[in-house]
Fold this sequence. Notes:
The protein is α+β, with helices and mostly antiparallel strands. It is built from 11 helices and 15 strands. Helix 7 crosses helix 9. The relative contact order is 0.16.
Amino acid sequence: MAAESPKIERVKLKDLPAMAARFIDGAKPGTFIPITKHRADAMVHNPNAAPEDVAMLLATVGERCVGYFGVMAVMLKHEGKLHKVHWLTTWAVAPDFIGKGLGSRLMEEALALDIDLAIVGSKPARRVSAKYGFQEIKPLDYVQIDFGVAGRYNLVSLLLRLIRKLFSLLRIKLSIEMVSRPFEKLFEFLFGWLFRPIVTWLARRQVADIKTERIDQVDAVQASATTGFARDKSVINWMLHEPWVLPQKKTGGKTLDYSFSDWRLEFEVFAWKVSSESSGFVCFQQSEVRGRKVLKVLDYQLAADTLLSVALQRAGETRIDVIEGPAELAAPLGNGLLARMLVQRKQRTLQVHPRAADSPLGRAWQQLEQTYVDGDTAFT
Length: 380
């Protein structure tokens, strides 16, 4: 007998918590689930969304979830006006349904919603999205300030990179990560205690000490004049008060199969008020990722040198391995040897699918400027 074809359901925002409970309560370990309870509860309070908005496309076979596609309302600012656009977030298919066309069906159902859509994904995901008419906009440049110089610049890894470079001249792509990574971890373990304080001190010499105060919420946000996704104080405070990730395994889905971040060690989202010649605020996300402490700069209203001062201050207090944030974060370090050792430059690619040429996104997408915390990226 032929296998039953998955049914795709449009789940409204108001129904997300009940749907999460439906698949989590009483579920056996390893069960594939579409959302965690704390994430569903947080989504309901999205200040940009309405209760009747479609918040998830859910694929089921009988009572079993076999795939899902998250849909989150955001605001697009264009020509001084705000317009609702929807960000496609979590997109996953159960392991036994991979390669059977379900991911494509979910995308087709998303397009059938007839709304303006935006998405950020990996290269394979972007190739799929491009087949459905998604257009790429100018990539966003961002940086990682990585204090693990003892691991990255060990002699073995440097030699492997040289060999890779020589092979690339012959147009041969050589992967060295599987060999290089263990040596990086070893040298960082052996010598990181010595080099990390030195490079952190050298970086802090480039900026002034700043007076900070921890705050529970942001009281005012200066609106941007550019075309882009708007984050007012209601959105920032929503992020601060209801993060989608927990600091440890405290969720009802901790033994279940959820394809996205449910918990991280030492996870925390917090805000600081800054008092200096360049006063303002900054929001941070801090957690442990693959054994390394990462501090991410989220929303902020500070000059670049002040922003870096605050981030370095936090890094020194809590032994941060990596600071990640917008490209301007690294500008005060200049282009000298220290910057070349510490700063790694990255890019993020956004794709958009206007529902029509004259829709808000259709009129705005070619002028759209990304920021580091567009859409759901502040929550991940």
